[in-house]
Design a protein that fits this description.
single chain, 9 strands
């Protein structure tokens, strides 16, 4: 075999290997296959803007994840992103951190407390307590006018993903509020995939290797950040950290393979306009952009 022939054969082999690798990665990061029910639900979800942890200001009487913040978001016509935890006695509460120090100024972990143990705590020095998930749903359900959707993030702790997901779905079923569910924990999406396939589900992620506060080790951080767990989660949307979103895995999942894109946390009108112009949905904080204009 001539040198030219050998080079040509090597090039064919190399291109075949490369194509195989690309196909393999696509298979791993691909979202759920087309589902008409999900597409219809997403059309409604994507016409709103979402206030991060409600329309909040932690230096005001309406701190993050408080009923006051959710009431303000509802009044302004925004959907809200919120964080749901499962207490030691099986109840659902809305607060961002499992550890109570930042929000409430006390030691302890939400999942190790009962509802009674959380009842007297106050958020960021205000009069606002930690709301139950049901109370937040009622803010949206019972207000006048069209009901904006909620982006419900399920915060797992010590492997409680199945119990948390099941309890959250029971509460959502009991209220007439449009919603989608997201989580950093792909096991939540796996549970929804097998138990509640009609629910629009999203994989939260970021470049964990750039996040100094991440508690994931290198292997898990690299795997989760590259969306490789989509292979068993099969999300409908990817909710990626806004300043980390320009990654090959995000482009593959959203631009090539059809996942919807949500980005967080958007801090300016310019960033929000950029995301929406590309067909994405923004979760914003620190400014009031007004409701999303609908196309004629």
């Amino acid at each position: 075999m001539s040198k030219v022939a050998r080079l040509a054969k090597a090039a064919v082999v190399a291109s075949g290997v490369a194509a195989g690798l690309v196909a393999g990665v696509c298979a791993l990061v691909a979202p759920r296959r087309k589902n008409e029910g999900v597409a219809e639900t997403w059309e409604g979800l994507s016409t709103y803007r979402y206030a991060h942890r409600g329309l909040h200001d932690n230096q005001s009487p309406a701190p993050e994840n408080s009923l006051a913040a959710f009431r303000l978001a509802r009044e302004w016509g925004y959907g809200s992103e919120l964080d749901v935890h499962l207490t030691a006695d099986g109840q659902l509460v809305v607060i961002h951190d499992s550890r109570l120090q930042r929000a409430c100024g006390v030691d302890g972990v939400v999942e190790e407390k009962t509802m009674a143990g959380l009842a007297d705590l106050r958020l960021f020095g205000t009069q606002e307590g930690i709301p139950t998930f049901a109370q937040v749903l009622e803010v949206y359900e019972h207000a006048d006018g069209p009901c904006p959707p909620l982006v419900v993030e399920l915060k797992t702790h010590d492997g409680n993903y199945a119990q948390l997901a099941e309890r959250a779905m029971e509460e959502l079923d009991a209220h007439n509020v449009p919603y989608c569910v997201e989580s950093f924990d792909p096991r939540v999406l796996w549970w929804l995939r097998h138990n509640r396939p009609e629910v629009v589900r999203g994989q939260l992620s970021e470049n964990f290797l750039l996040d100094k506060d991440s508690d994931l080790d290198f292997a898990r951080g690299a795997t989760h950040g590259a969306l490789l767990c989509n292979v068993f989660a099969r999300p409908d949307f990817v909710a990626y950290r806004h300043d980390h979103r320009r990654r090959a895995a995000v482009w593959l999942a959203c631009n090539l393979l059809g996942a919807r894109l949500v980005t967080w946390t958007i801090k300016s009108p310019v960033e929000l306009a950029e995301v929406e112009a590309a067909g994405g949905v923004g979760i914003f904080e620190g400014f009031e952009p007004g409701p999303r204009k609908q196309e004629a």
